[in-house]
Amino acid sequence: MGWLFTFQKSLPPAAPGGGPPPPLPRRGGVAYELILNKQHLTIEGLKKLVEIKALINKGLPDQLKEAFPKFELVNIQRCKVNKEIPDPNWIAGFVSGEGSFMVRMFKSASHTIGYQVQLRFQITQQSRDKFLMERFVSYLGCGYISERGDIVDFQVTNLMDIVDKIIPFFEKYPIIGVKLDNYNDFCKAAQLIKDKEHLTVEGLEKIRLPTAVHPPTGGRLPTAVHPPTGG
Q1: Separation in Å, CA 128 to CA 24, 26, 56, 80, 152
Q2: In Å, what is the CA distance from 151 to each residue of 123, 126, 127, 165, 231?
Q3: Within a 10 A sphere around the Cβ of 221, how many other Cβ atoms?
């Protein structure tokens, strides 16, 4: 038929323990179902895909506008999403696809060693899913919501919440896939900070090396940790 449609984002992994998988993006889910049912091989199915494309991101590129000059935009009904989190395995699967376990290290004049370390567990979604982010706060019993434009973040930065709630949760309901390495490094950093090893150069070096460490926005990780002059 002359046109190829691709998904640029991989599908989220199935939840461990046989729980329901995390939801597909709403319009992306409609498009995925069309392709799964091979409707994209028909003219009508292809038109539906073009209609979906016209409703998301920046709309249709000029080539598609020329190829499909006559079609009516339809208001695709959004999938109904349960506002309640079904079970903890669902959270593990969702976070395996959408969550971040971050360790940030940056210079700080107020710290004797010259550096500050911050742990952050974060999930980011479109603002239309704010209700889901709010459910994470109540379900996990910690964290907070922040908004920036059309983006909403669920974040946990309090060390004791991370040590007493977040890590025990994911030890019981494990992270799967590529984020497992970051999660393991995150746990090691949390233990080092809990033991106050981050207050020594040797401890900071242990935290600096794992792959989970991220510089603050606009910053860079130090190639090595050096105490302030005279320290």
Answers
A1: 14, 11, 14, 12, 8
A2: 11, 5, 5, 25, 42
A3: 15
Q: To 5 degrees, how large is the angle CA 175–CA 138–CA 123?
A: 45
CATH architecture of 88-214: Roll (3.10)
Helix (H) or strand (E) holding 51: helix 43-55
Q: What proportion of the chain, given as a percentage, has pLDDT over 90?
A: 32
List, in sequence order, the alpha helices (H) in 62-161: 62-67, 88-98, 130-140, 159-161
Record the pTM.
0.59
**How far is the C-alpha of 179 from the C-alpha of 182, rounded, in Å?**
5
User: Which regions of the chain carry the CATH code 3.10.28.10?
Assistant: 88-214
Write the pLDDT tens digit of every residue in 41-90. Answer: 677 776 776 666 565 545 566 666 666 665 544 444 444 455 678 889 99
